[in-house]
Amino acid sequence: MDGLGRRVLVAAFDGWNDAGEAASSAITQLREGGSYETVFSVDPELYFDYQYTRPHIAADGDGRRTLRWPEATLLRPAQAQATRGTQLWLLTGVEPARAWQAFSSEFIDIALREDITGFVAIGSMMSDVPHTRPISVFSGSDNENLRTALELERSTYEGPVGILSVLGDAAERAGIPTASLWASVPHYVAGHTPSPKATLALLDRLEDLTGAPVPRGDLATEAAAWEASIDAAAADDEEMTEYIHQLERTRDTWDSPEASGDAIAQEFERYLRRSDGKPGDGPSKPGRDDPRR
Predict the structure, then answer these.
(1) Structural domains of the chain sorted by starting position, each given as residue range(s) with its CATH number in brackets
(2) Out of 32, 129, 149, 152, which residue is the most buried by the measure of CB atoms under 10 Å away?
């Protein structure tokens, strides 16, 4: 596909960039829906703080107790040379605790060796959005040619970033066109349960962007069950029900064809008056790594 080419590296990490586990679950879905082989894994001693991201111990298939260390790994399609069309390489793991520039350099060097032609960072952020409406996915790029070719937006966010932004910057500097996809996950559920509806939205947009076939598995069924479970919980809580209705009204206003800047501003002001300035009661507050800010 024009812009990103035929060898696209898709990256997502556990941690700061992964509200509702939506981004890391998207990578898991891609990995389980295809055949992949490991290209490279970093030395965990160099990049992880084990007091923050501890190793896990578990029994293996033979019943032996084995330590599993934090990792970050790049994988390629097992049949990369034999298959035509766009293919997706995967970069996944835990966000590193230190030496981010060296960490990024290691992976970008491997990406260049693999002849990667495009890079897509996928993340998810907590936002004041209703679970009952389609999950919005911000699709952006700092690459002017890529924005034109794929009709992407340009982020105006300034502030702290996660490892995805650092990797994206390193990829661009190395000549690999880079895009990012960010799903907005309802903040009132993002910290309590995985969000398959957001994962599905990310995968749908990834397929649109790259042209590569993307497996969804049972995500549509899981997303419907997720939404129904939140509906059931909200039905027993009048305050939560009213809050969700407020979010729905604001989302519908923003999405309406006749919506203007003035209309959106007026709706925002109405929200503030209704909430009496309580934290978390206004519309869509950008997350920590929100590319829309």
Answers:
(1) 7-221 (3.40.50.10900), 238-288 (no CATH)
(2) 129
